[in-house]
Amino acid sequence: MNDVFIAGVGILNLTSPPVIDVGLQSTREFILQNSFIARNKGGMYLTATTPSASTKLRANITNNVFAHNTHGEVLNLTGHHYQNIFLYENYIFNNSAGDFRDVIHVRNLVVNFTFNTITNNTGHYIVRSFNMVNTKPTQEFTKSLFTGNNATAIYRAVFHVGSGNPKINHNYLVNNECDFELETNPVNG
């Protein structure tokens, strides 16, 4: 069990470097579980790179609390589409990422985001997802609770899909401060 409590430096315009900054290269396993990450200025960034599928990451982020964090994304997950991250039974609440930062930002990773509770957060988007356009592996957001969140982007959506084909299934979404639950970028054909 890990506690990261009241850490980080607040910088102008609600941006800060991450409190937890994990950079992994050709790492096969990463586990973050049973942690309490609260009242920080800056969130958790995980960047994973690998030159081949043989050294792909299998990360497990399970049973954590991310609460009352400010000044940037609570979770920023970036890597290559070989990498797999499993986010299960996390409680993400009362965070303020700022008007131009997302609460959860996922780029170019295979993500299974299941049975999580995301409530009373404020950010540009609550979840922003990007993936390589023509990859078979996907990002999956399933059976999670999204309630009481406030998106500050122009169209005020809970989910923003920038590219790729994420699966968003069987979630409970009640966010009265948001105009839309899902926003996607236009596709040029």
Quick synopsis:
The chain has strands spanning 3-5, 20-25, 29-33, 36-38, 44-49, 58-62, 65-67, 75-79, 84-88, 91-93, 96-98, 104-107, 110-114, 117-119, 122-123, 127-130, 139-142, 145-147, 150-151, 157-161, 167-169, 172-174, 180-184. The protein has 189 residues and is mainly β. It has one domain (3-184).
How is the topology of this model organized?
Elements: E1 3-5, E2 20-25, E3 29-33, E4 36-38, E5 44-49, E6 58-62, E7 65-67, E8 75-79, E9 84-88, E10 91-93, E11 96-98, E12 104-107, E13 110-114, E14 117-119, E15 122-123, E16 127-130, E17 139-142, E18 145-147, E19 150-151, E20 157-161, E21 167-169, E22 172-174, E23 180-184
Parallel strand pairs: 1-4, 2-5, 3-6, 4-7, 5-8, 6-9, 7-10, 8-12, 9-13, 10-14, 11-15, 12-16, 13-17, 14-18, 15-19, 16-20, 17-21, 18-22, 20-23
